[in-house]
Structure formats: structure tokens, C-alpha cells
Amino acid sequence: MKNIEHRIKEANGRLHNYGINIEQIGSRLYLRATLPPKPQSTKTNWHQQRINIAVATLDGVKLAESEGKILSLKLDTKTFDWNDYLKSELPSNRVKTICEWIQEFEKDYFQRKQRTFKTESTWKVEYQTVFKMLPVDEILNVEILKQVILATKPDTRTRKRFCLTLKLLAKFAGLDFNPDSYSGSYSYRSRQIRSLPTDKLILECYSNLENAKWQWIFGILATYGLRNHEVFFLDLEQLRAGNQIITVLAGKTGYRKIWPFHPEWFESFGLSNVKIPDINLNRNNSAIGATVSQRFRRYDCLPFKVYDLRHAWAVRTLEYGIDITLAAQQMGHSLSVHSNLYHAWIDVEHHQRAFDLAINKSNRPMPPEL
Prior knowledge:
Domain Tyr recombinase: 191-356
Protein name: Integrase
Number of helices: 16
GO biological process, one term: DNA integration
CATH architecture of the largest domain: Orthogonal Bundle
Shape: elongated
GO molecular function: DNA binding
CATH class of the largest domain: Mainly Alpha
Order of helices and strands: HEEEHHHHHHHHHEEHHHHHH
Keywords: DNA recombination
């Protein structure tokens, strides 16, 4: 059975000589032709316009083709009158611009999610950065979405984000558009892997930090693998009491407990002597985290990104033989994200250390004797 796109294509082939085209936008069919200005329009010349004509179904295509021929006859006989069609231009069926669809999408997004720093940050990063690349004054259609996606670099995180976000917008607007085939092969595994700081380098950098408060921040990030912003949302009373199992009270992934690796660093870095820099916390998590990154980059000139302390903690837990399910929970992300993200940093040396630890266990399995 032929789908609606094929039927529209066939109908447009028959309407070609009439100078009229059928277009599907969302759940509606429109006739597109060169028409006189609408009543009260500021334009004076004939120009390409759309007429809302039918529901986007197979029967709707038949009706649209028939109406297209009638429209052509009216234009030829100079009997065309906008009043015959404007009554069908109901507000609910009016062709919306991309700007209007984005506004409705945003309204729906925050009706389903409480407006918080976290959801606003997600909106800006995952949606707004993509939507700003769209021609907002144009009518939303599949071709525009496709071209915006293809303008991004293939097999990148950006391409994948554009595909996911514009697929959601298309679904919201009732467009039949699946860009999965353009998404490419990007994954955590395809990212360029940079070298992580060794424990020795981490200790050297800690010792070179002059500001005591930012030195404390560095120490706790290194010891617990926190996200940058999470250091400002800890149960500080537990820390002051000397409890080495810290509690994250809020942040990107909410409440969780984390164990120190290395545990000796709790004492070495004096983490029970809490020292928190005074920064503006009345912002989203990304902005708070960026302040931490900028501080270490601009003033302390770290030879690595401060977020690498988190990555180094993850790899360190593997060396300790911690089950990756537990490590993932402590880091506040899924097992799949954990294994996909950190597998690339596991080299032969890490495998050898894990092997040595395993075979030296007194309760390890033994082979039967010959």
C-alpha cells in the first residue's frame, strides 16, 4: 500500500502543469501557488502562498488534488477570492513559523518539568543551542530540519545532539521525520582520549596551590571524583566530624554517598577542615562548575583540566578492584555511561595491576591438580 508521501508526489506530478503544489505540514495538507495578496495584507504583488485545504490522509490527498484543479480554474478565469478559503484558516490549523513551534515546545517542556536551575540548564544546552540554528521566520518542514542537521560535522557529539533534539521537535509538530540515519557513529568510545594526571602529579599540583580554600576544593575533587559543582552541595557537618564517606545532597544527579580513593588523602589533604570559597551559588550547575574550572585554569595554571580529577578517580577505583556497578553509582551515572566513558583510559598497565591483585588473593579460585 502506498504511503501518503508517495501519493502526494503522484498528485503533484499531475498538478505540475497547473502551477500548484501539495505540501504536508504536520497533520495538514496545503495548496501552494502564486496568489494575490490576502485582504489587509501590506504586500501588493502576487507571491507564493499556502492555502490550508485538508487533513493529511490518503483521502485528504485526493481532496487536495481536486481542490488544486479548482483553484487553477479560478485563477485562470480571474474568479479567485480569498474569502472562499480564509474561513478554513482557523487558528488551530494556521501554518506556524519555526519560532512559534519553538515557543510552544518550550512551554510544553516546562509544563512537564519543574522550572529549576537544572531544567533551565538542560533547556539551554540540549535544546536552545540547537534551535538557534533554525531559520525562525520560516515554516517548519522536513527539509529545513534535514539541512540544519547536515550542516554539522558528521560522527560528532554535536551531530548526535542535533538529530535527537530536532527529532523531538518534529514529533511535537506532527512532522514525519526520523533523522536517525544521519546521527553517525559518535559515542563516548569515539571521543579523543587525553592523558590523565598521575597520582604523583595530582599531589604536586595540590602542594603548589597557594589559596587554602581552593586547595581544599582541589583535594576533595581528587579524593572523591566529584563533579565541579557538587563540592558546594555536600553534607559538611559529616566532613567536619571526620566521616570519610561523604554525602552529596544535591547536584546534577542528586543524593548519593561516595567513598575516598585513596582513603589516605582524606588526612593528607585535611578534608575534615572544611574550607569553602565564597562564590555565587544562585546559578545553574553548569555555571557553578565553570567557575571552578576557570579558577584553576586562569589562576593556578594546572597542566590538566580539573575535571580530569574525576576521570582519574574513576580509573583509580578499577585499580582498587571496585565493582564498576558500585563505582558508577558513586559517580552518579549509569553503568553503561561508566563503562563506555572510562574503558578507553584502561591500558595494559591497569589490566596488569588488576591481574596481580586478583591472583594474589588468598581466596582466589585454584585449578585442579594433575
